[in-house]
Structure formats: C-alpha cells, structure tokens
Amino acid sequence: MLIVVAAADPEPRPRLVDRYLVAALDAGIRPLLVVTKTDLADPAPFLSHFDGLDLRVFTSARGEMPTDAIGAELVGHSTVFVGHSGVGKSTLVNALVPSAGRATGHVNQVTGRGRHTSSSTVSLRYENAAGTGWVIDTPGVRSFGLGHVDPANILAAFTELAAIAEDCPRGCTHLVDAPDCALIEAAQRGELGPAELARLDSLQRLLQTFADKADSRDAK
Asked: What is the pLDDT of residue 177?
C-alpha cells in the first residue's frame, strides 16, 4: 500500500494515515508513504508523528519526483495507491506509468479540499529495467473506515507502543481509563516522547471507535 499525502494544500492528516497503516498491517500488507508538495511546506513536523515506525518514506516537490526509488519498491508487487483528494496521487501515477492518462485537478483555495479527479479504480502495469509490477490507482477519499479490521490487530500498527504494551495486564483495552495499562503508566512517568504521545493518542482514538461500536451493538 502506497499512502500519498501532501505536505500542504491540502494539509496532511496524521489520523487518516494512521487508519491506512492499521488497515495495511492488519491485512499483512507492507505500507509505504509518499509526501508530495514539500516545496510548499517542511514535512518534518508531520513525519515526526511516525517516528519509531518501520515505514519507508519518500518525498517529492515540484519538478522533483523520486520515480526511480518508488519504482524499485513496485517491482514484483501489486501496490494500491491511496490518499486524500488533491494530494497529487494521480500526478504520481502518471509519472510512474506515462500511458496511464489519469486525470489531475487542483485544490479549492477556499475549502482546502481536492477534487475527485479519479472516479474509478484501475490496475496499471509498471515496468522498469529491473522488472514489472502493478499499480492499483484508487479515487481520492475524505474519510477511511476500519469496520473490516479486527480491533485486536490495531496495536500491531503501532510497533513502538506494542513493545511497551507487552507489560499490560491480560485483556487490557489500552483506553485512557484502562487500569494498570503499561502505556498509560509510561506516559505518566514521562517515558514517552512527543511523537510517541501523539501515536498513543491516535491508538486510543482508534480503539475508542471500536469500543463505542461494541457498546452501540450491546444496547440494541
């Protein structure tokens, strides 16, 4: 899974990327991340959110697209391209597969939202000197649900936190009110850095989503 976000215009959404990562790792898919439009903003603050993760990151700017480096990761694989509307995903696909002819658009300067220029999912053959692969281009999204994911697998997407959670009691929910949670105790002792605290917040928000769904089902 190649996750495409923009450094600006539209602003990057860390929690959307978290959801993509959870879905990828739950399915046993290797995630990759491309940050476009780095000529408009420094991607470092956004990328710090993912410190500690085993995540290959590429950056691109106007006139500078690492197609060779990205292409090397595509050979021998079928790779689905996902991302928010307006981040430059179709532009990237066209650069990798010149015959693709995927429509490109612009970001609305008032709403900050991109237009859905790609309205269908297509599979495109990628080729370079090392071999071939498949690029699966998907329409841009504004939200991404995780109803298909097993909640027990969510923690696996947060590698650095999963190691700490090994000291949690059996059946720990890792939510903000979880008793004796090793993650919460580590945060309270000041052992987690800013990036880890942000990741813990993302983890707990995702877990709370599933907890709320379970409560809703039980109430019916």
From this structure: 94
